[in-house]
Every structure is written in structure tokens, then in C-alpha cells.
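Lab notebook, bench 4. The sequencing result for the construct came back, and we need a structural model before the next group meeting so we can plan mutations. Quick request posted to the team channel:

Model the 3D structure of this chain.
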Amino acid sequence: MGHRAGVSGQTGNGEEGRGWPASAHEARRFILDRLPGASPVEGLPSDGDRYGRGGDPPVLVTPDLVEGPSFRALHVADPRSVRGQSGFAAFLDGAQDLRVVNQVAGVPIVWATVSAAIRARVNRRLVSWSGRAPIVSGRYYIPFRYVDGLRDELKNHSQVVDTAFEDAAGAFPSRHPAALMEAAVQRVQQDRERIEQELAESWCASGERVLYVDGSITASVIVSASDAAVGVIKSHRRLYAEGDAFRVLVGLAAGERSSIFRVAPRSRHAVASWYVRVRAATGRDALFGLVRVEAALSADISPRADEISRWIIAEGAPLALPDGRWDKMAYGIRGTEEFLRAIS
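Done. Here's the predicted structure in C-alpha cell form:
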């Protein structure tokens, strides 16, 4: 994929060359010229949302408390009193757009674009952070073992990913189109996380103030241990609130946070975590306005959790409308998402 103005395009070893696709439309035609038996698939812009991010089944987990003997609600702020008092200096978010552009004997050929950017707050406006340009990268995701006639031009290109790889048990994904799509989505998500992590690590190394990260910070040993980054999670497939803790969690009022607990996902890095109710859930579902926060573990995590919680509550105004996740989304993240749509 070629470079765009102000955007760092990731193209591996500089192999983009003349004619290498830079959009789903070009990617569809490119394959037709190079892969015998391929036929076009007219994907819609919504395809990326339809496939989305893979999710674990919803579960409740007992929290590993690091603050106090029991899971409880703690008042940190009146949401009306903290408006304009956030200490976040910038916002990091990523995006993915995934299309099935071709198929060969029922095997989907996927083209996906992943992007990420840090938008810094300067005089109440969001601008691209000067420390690192936004990243936009387009790739094919193809299950090599199930596609006959795949040329070396594609197999050996850094912007083509083999999605039919062996898992830990030595098994390959099924040829079933749904299984192949799941494998492609997984690799797209990994690529998106990789570039988000790259930008977050650059920020943490820069000595800047605190970065609001949309999502978890546990993937990076650097980011998870840094006071310069805070992760904010809006989805709650895994709730750290089993038993009595669950009743406390769903009963959190606007401006309250939960007790702090330790989160240490497998193959990732431990962080301190807690829940914050950004806005009242009266008349709404139990998870309305609820976010989970991740920050570096430290001896003084309780006062830091109070401060960070107040910042997150402050970021709830103005409302991130018309986004459907406005109850949990910071306006700065909405602005970053709009920026990514414009450059991708």
C-alpha cells in the first residue's frame, strides 16, 4: 500500500511496487489478473462491522482484589462537577475494514485495512501527535493451502498473510468458508493490535503526559507498566464480578468506581483494573455507562484510580453522539475514529 499524506503506510520491505492495490476495489481486480479461477465478490462497506472482532463467550470471574477486603462501590466525583477537568493529553484508537473481495472454489480471499492514530489535545482541539504519524496498512488474507495456482508473487509478498496456519495442536482450520473467515478475522485483529501497540509504546517512551487508550493495555510489557497510558474497555464479555461482587457492580451509580483488582490474562501482562460508571443507568440495562479501566500496578494505585476515574467521567462530556456507544465513549475517541475513517 502506498504512502498517504501524513500517514505512515506499513509495506514491509518496500515491495508495494507499481500496481499494488491500495483499496478493496483495486484488490478485487488485482486478484482477478493473477489467480486462475478467481471470481469477484462485491463486498459492502459494512462487511468489516459484520465480521467484527471475535469474542469470548460471556463469563463472570471472581475479582483478584488488591484494594480492601471486599468488592465495593467508591464515590469519586459528581459527573457535573468535573467537566473540563481531564488530565488526558491524547487519545489512541485503531480501526479495521475487512472485505471479501474474491473467492476461489468457495474459498474467501479477504482484503483488510487496519489503521491506528494518536490524536493529541492542543488548545481544546485534536491534532495528530507529532511524535508518530498515523499508520494505515492494507493486506490480503489468504489460506494458502486451500488455494490452487497461487503465484509466488503473492505467497512471498509481505502484504499477503497466510491464514491457514497450524494451531498449537498442529491442526489447520477447516475448509469451511466460515472457519476460514474466522481465521482471517483473527489475523486482522492481530495486525490491528500490533500497530496500536506500536504507537502506544512510542508514546510511553516519549515522556508525554497520560494517553487514553481505547481498549486493553495488557498486550505490551512497556505500556502495561507505564504511568503514561490508561486503557479503557467498553465491552464486557468477561465481567470481573462473580457472586456478591456482581450485585455491587451492577449497582454502581454515576460517579462511582469499584474496588481495584488485578487482571493478568494468559500470555499477557498484569495490570490494575477497576470499573467506573460514567453516567447513570436508571431505566437502562445493567452495563449502560460502565467502563473497565486498566493502569499500571503501583503502591499508590488507590489515589491514582480516583484521579483517573474523575478524568474518564469528565471525558463523558460532550456526548459522543451519534455513535451508538455514546454512553461509554469519550468524545476524543469518537474524534479519533472519525479521523481514521477519513484517512483509511
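The radius of gyration is 22 Å.
Will bring this to the meeting.
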